[in-house]
Design a protein that fits this description.
The complex is a heterodimer of chains A (176) and B (642). By secondary structure, chain A is an all-alpha fold. Chain A has seven helices and no strands. Chain B has 642 residues and is of the alpha+beta class. Helix content of chain B is 41%, strand content 23%. In chain B, the strands form seven sheets. In chain B, strands 1, 2, 3, 4, 10 and 11 form a six-stranded mixed sheet that branches. In chain B, strand 12 (198-205) and strand 13 form a beta hairpin. The longest helix of chain B is centred in the last third of the chain and has 31 residues, at 522-552. Chain B is globular. The chains are: A mainly alpha (176), B alpha+beta (642).
Chain lengths: 176, 642
């Protein structure tokens, strides 16, 4: 896939202005969406479809902090993907295991308030992790060699995200 | 346009929008910049979506068909939309209804419900095509020739249901420009009239489908944030709830199609009466010949339909959550669909979203009006064409079945369309030359619990040890929300052609055969039609090319400019004649001559969208390029993955 920063014409950085990004996506959609090429020759319509897909996909990547971080790391020459990234430190694994246990207890008891409380705590944790990640990428911007420092923080973010995904699935299941 | 007028000044094809509804269908067009519903010669604006097949093989559509429904419940199909894209053993097929179904004889046939009428077997696609044909005739009375058509579908329709709708359009001889989601169509009609920006919820409860869509209106861009719903929930269910009670009161034996039809009709009347009255009395025939008076109060009815309305709440809350929007952040709630007239529905919506819904556009017509506007825009005729854009989403996640029967999501629900995804597979046995791929749609974890869309067999993989082949499968969802799949084997370096066999939907050949058998003069009519279609396409391409020349001729080298203008002259010559093949070939030639240029024009449009950031670069590149192709090459390498 093409580099999403280039596809959307934005600076390759982690702390993107998401509103400006959304505006850029809309502007580019106005230029490339197949509706703009209705009645055009067949190859042109196919081209517009392909490019609109690229723009939508790039937006989907950059909007999501995990995939945005992966795109930045790829640009910096780092290998990404859970199987090639460094293993998570035991302390983090222990911590995640403990909160997971709490979450499954709450799920078994259909205890929605506890689930929401665990979710809120993890959301705060996510904010902090995102800040750390932004800092790591900012440091790497001046010292490219440091880009791999972002890898363990990304790993942490993945655990946090999975936990939050489970919380929202439970929330949906248990909400009236 | 000028060229078309040379052929027949009276018959310039006009774009129309069609709301193909469960209960009623409508056709609308834009006139003097205002969308309007086309009425029939009696002034009726709604065509009942009822199709009657009589014993001699004639087909009757609309109100006359509806009048025959009570007497001929099995030969008159109403609410056919509920059966679109449904399999023979779908739950929907087995609900309270009045039809006989043909038992499938092959697995292929089991993929689509088929009605047994007299000695004929009819598919929902064919029934819908009859409704669309009736609407086409209605529109032709007013416009003479119908051009491109936008047909609306429930936002929550899955791929099979969308494909079936598009097939029905083709079968009715329509040039389907686009399938448009009903809530988005409503928002378009509403938003353009009110010129208001903000976040809106569209609550669309029709005869047989429910949709909710959260969207953002921002200076002409209608961006759908999320959508949800139930493609088998609507006013019909209210009728059924009430009819079940009537059938008990009537002492009706099970399986009496005529009495079921009668009870359903009575229920609908009572439902309508209760919109403005607190109670309605109805006289029902009871077994043995006598009649019985029954009073239904609004409170009774509200209690009966409460579980139905509550099901809409689940979808609404999920759509809000998916959009990341809280009810208080909404600027308005738009009501669509006849069933939103039910007072209990309005009260529920108001409580759910915490604000009184906007209902100042006729909820029966707003979808068709929006479709007409979109058709006008796509035909390039609308004053708003340059500023309006609809960005819709995929309503249900697309996935593939993996080991253990788990559905792995490749495109999650609410992804903005058009969308694409690529997945790489490998072989698990030595010398394996084929690969099965099962594509499903839905949110459930197991593939068996999702809607099965297609089973593809990828063939033609070169023989090699297990795990070495790299099969790259590309999924694309176009702006209609329709999926297409292509595959290639990449290890050998050669792009292998891999065969993909869709398991539903009609092929072009099938549509051709069905059209042929439906036309009175078979071949001859069909040839005429193909000529007209080829001409329409050629005219569109010519118009688009000339428009492009007026704006971007500077992006062509002199050689290319000469090629394009020759191709234009050739095509114009062919269009003036009546040889279909010549028109098609020369349309393709013009297509080829403009292909590289189209890429450059898109680059320029992108550069402009990025506010001049790369604009000067692009223009300089083009000016300096000794060969224009060198520029294209440079751009290609720039956008390749780093």
């Amino acid at each position: 896939m093409a580099d999403p920063f280039e596809t959307l014409g934005v600076d390759p950085r982690f702390d993107l202005d998401l509103r400006a990004l959304e505006q850029r996506h809309r502007d580019l959609s106005k230029a490339l969406h197949p509706d703009r090429y209705s009645g055009a020759p067949a190859q042109e319509r196919r081209l517009s479809l392909g490019r609109a897909i690229d723009v939508n996909e790039a937006f989907r990547v950059l909007r999501d902090p995990i995939r945005r971080a992966e795109a930045l790391l790829r640009r910096g020459g780092a290998k990404v993907g859970e199987t090639v990234e460094p293993a998570a430190p035991p302390a983090l694994l222990m911590e995640i295991m403990e909160v997971r246990e709490e979450l499954s207890d709450a799920a078994r008891a259909k205890d929605l308030p506890s689930i929401l409380r665990l979710g809120a705590a993890m959301t705060a944790r996510q904010e902090a992790t995102l800040k750390k990640l932004a800092q790591a990428f900012a440091d790497a911007a001046t010292e490219p060699g440091k880009i791999s420092d972002a890898l363990p923080i990304l790993g942490e973010l993945r655990y946090v995200r999975r936990f939050l995904d489970e919380v929202s699935a439970l929330e949906e299941e248990l909400s009236p | 346009m000028s060229l078309l007028e040379i052929f027949d000044p009276k018959a310039a094809p006009r774009p129309v929008g069609i709301d193909l509804g469960t209960t009623n269908s409508l056709v609308a067009r834009v006139r003097d910049d205002k969308p309007q519903v086309i009425a029939d010669c009696n002034g009726a604006r709604l065509l009942p979506s009822a199709v009657h097949y009589d014993a001699r093989g004639a087909v009757i559509v609309g109100t006359p068909a509806l009048l025959l429904a009570a007497e001929h419940p099995r030969e008159t199909i109403v609410s056919v939309k509920r059966f679109m894209g449904r399999g023979a053993d779908d739950a929907e097929t087995k609900r309270l209804g009045t039809y006989d179904f043909a038992a499938p004889t092959t697995p292929e046939e089991a993929k689509s419900v088929r009605f047994k009428i007299h000695d004929k077997v009819v598919s929902p696609v064919e029934v819908s095509a009859e409704i669309l044909k009736a609407l086409r005739l209605l529109a032709e009375d007013e416009l003479r020739t119908v051009g491109g058509v936008v047909i609306t579908v429930p936002a929550y329709f899955d791929d099979a249901q969308r494909q079936a709708t598009k097939d029905a359009g083709r079968l009715a001889g329509l040039d389907v420009l686009r399938l448009l989601n009903e809530p988005t169509a409503a928002a378009l009609a509403y938003g353009l009239e009110k010129q208001q920006n903000g976040l809106f919820a569209v609550y669309d409860l029709g005869g047989g489908t429910f949709d909710v869509t959260i969207l953002l209106l921002d200076n002409g861009v209608f961006q759908v944030k999320s959508t949800g719903g139930d493609s088998a929930l609507g006013g019909d269910d209210m009728d059924r709830a009430l009819a079940s009670r009537f059938l008990v009161e009537m002492g009706a034996p099970e399986g009496d199609h005529g009495l079921v039809r009668l009870a359903l009709d009575a229920a609908r009347q009572v439902k309508h009466g209760l919109t403005d009255h607190d109670e309605v009395e109805i006289e029902l025939p009871i077994v043995g010949g006598a009649t019985k008076k029954i009073v239904v109060t609004r409170a009774d009815f509200d209690a009966m339909i409460a579980p139905i309305i509550a099901r809409t709440g689940v979808a609404c809350r999920r759509a809000l959550r998916d959009a990341g929007v809280k009810p208080e952040e909404l600027d308005g709630v738009i009501l669509v669909g006849g069933s939103t007239r039910v007072p209990a529905v309005r009260a529920y919506v108001e409580k759910l979203f915490g604000k009184a819904p906007l209902g100042d556009i006729n909820p029966d017509e707003v979808v068709a009006l929006g479709a007409a506007i979109q058709a006008d825009i796509l035909a390039g005729e609308n004053a708003h064409a340059g500023e309006v854009l609809l960005l819709d989403v995929l309503p249900l996640s697309l996935g593939i079945e993996t080991m253990g029967g788990v559905a792995e999501k490749i495109l999650p629900r609410n992804t903005t369309i058009p969308a694409g995804a690529r997945q790489v597979f490998t072989t698990y046995a030595d010398n394996q030359t084929g690969f099965d791929l099962h594509i499903v749609q839905g949110e459930r974890e197991l593939a068996a619990d999702c809607r099965s869309l297609a089973r593809f067999v990828l063939k033609g993989i070169p023989r090699m040890p297990a795990g070495l082949a790299r099969l790259e499968v590309t999924f694309r969802v176009d702006a209609d929300g329709l999926l297409s799949v292509t595959a290639k084997e990449t290890t050998t370096g050669v792009e292998q052609h891999v065969e993909v066999v869709p398991s539903y939907g009609l092929s072009d050949e099938e549509v051709e055969t069905m059209l042929l058998s439906a036309l009175d003069n078979g071949e001859e009519d069909f040839e005429k039609r193909r000529l007209i279609e080829a001409r329409v396409e050629a005219e569109q391409v010519l118009a688009a090319t000339k428009k492009a020349l007026a704006a971007d001729a500077d992006l062509l080298s002199d050689d290319e400019k000469a090629r394009v203008s020759t191709a234009i002259t050739d095509l114009e010559g062919a269009v003036a004649g009546d040889r279909t093949a010549a028109i098609t070939t020369r349309t393709e030639a013009l297509d080829d001559a403009t292909h590289a240029w189209a890429g450059r024009r898109m680059d320029r449009a992108v550069a402009r969208a990025i506010e001049g950031k790369n604009l000067s670069d692009v223009e300089k590149d083009v000016a300096e390029a000794a060969g224009v192709d060198a520029h294209v090459e440079a751009h290609a390498s720039m956008t390749r993955p780093s």
